[in-house]
Each structure stands twice: as structure tokens, then as C-alpha cells.
Amino acid sequence: MTHQQKSAEDESHRALAGEVLRSSRRQLLCGTGVAAIAAVLAACGTGSGDGAKDGGDAKTNTPGSTSGSQPAGPLATLAEVPVGGGITVGDLVIVQPTQGVVKAYSRSCPHMHNPVDAPKDGVITCPFHQSKFKVEDGSRISGPATTGLTEVKVTVADGKITKAA
Ligand code: FES
């Protein structure tokens, strides 16, 4: 084998290795994407678990709420938010600590502003560095975050949750 042939063969191997690496990376990213989509779908599921009751019969307004001009469309229905737990909707985590009492918090973690997850067992957790917050008031339980989650006012009317004006 000549030096020139050896170089061409080495180049061919490098190109093949690069393609394999790129392909593996695509598969990994694709797999991660599928896992993320599955997590989102699971979060948007039936609201089972966490002691959830999907009664959907509570039509009372959050104490202190008022009707007024609302931004477009409801965020969720009361029936979609498990009692004692919650769901994520866009940049919000919507919780129902007790039947008919609904609160919402910004999902932006006070630590480094990554999005927190939907609550489990009454606790909202940031998956990035494990800061934990109470469902009841968004206050900090533990973790590197030094403050609680920021509350976002919502109202409930006719079983629909909307952002307060
Ligand atoms: S970004 Fe949430 S704990 Fe660090």
C-alpha cells in the first residue's frame, strides 16, 4: 500500500467515524426529544396520582377573585388540576392545594430560571438542581433557590381557570 493509498484510506475511515458519531448524536437527540414529549404528555394526562380527584364539580371562585377583562382563553379547567397537586401549562404551574382553591406560580425557578416540574406528593421540584417548593404557597422547602416561586394571579369561573387581569 502506498503512502497515498494509506492516506486516502485513513481519510475514508475518519469520514465514516464522523458520520457514525453524527448519526449517534442525532439518535440521542431524537431519543431525548421523544422522552421530553412523553414527559409533557404525561404531565397533561388525566391528573391521576398525587391523590388527585377529578371530580370537576367544584365551580367556586378562588377566594378574592374577581371577574374582569381576561386574557384570551382559559389556561385549564378545574377538573384538569388534581387536588393536592397540579399541572404545568406553558410558563405556569397551576395547583389546587385544596378542593376549589386554585393558585398559579411562574415555572421560572428562582435559582437559575429553569422551568420547574408539575408537583408530586405536594412538592414542586426544579429538575435542574432539585430546589423544592410547597404546592400551598410556592414557598421554598429546600435547594439552591433562596426564595419561593412567584405567584401569578388566576381566577376560576364556571370551572375554567384564567389568568387574572
Ligand atoms: S435552576 Fe432550579 S434549582 Fe437551579
From TrEMBL:
Metal-binding among keywords: yes
GO molecular function: 2 iron, 2 sulfur cluster binding; metal ion binding; monooxygenase activity; oxidoreductase activity, acting on paired donors, with incorporation or reduction of molecular oxygen
Polar residues biased stretches: 61-70
Coiled-coil zones: none
Any one Pfam family match given in the protein's UniProt record, by short name: Rieske
Region (Disordered): 48-74
Stored PROSITE patterns: RIESKE, TAT
Keywords for the protein's UniProt record, in alphabetical order: 2Fe-2S, Iron, Iron-sulfur, Metal-binding
Stored InterPro entries: Rieske_2Fe-2S, Rieske_2Fe-2S_sf, TAT_signal
Record-linked SUPFAM superfamilies: ISP domain (SSF50022)
Keyword Metal-binding: yes
Rieske domain mapped to chain residues: 73-163
Name used for this protein in its record: Rieske domain-containing protein
Source organism (scientific name): Actinorhabdospora filicis
Lineage, opening ranks: Bacteria, Bacillati, Actinomycetota, Actinomycetes, Micromonosporales
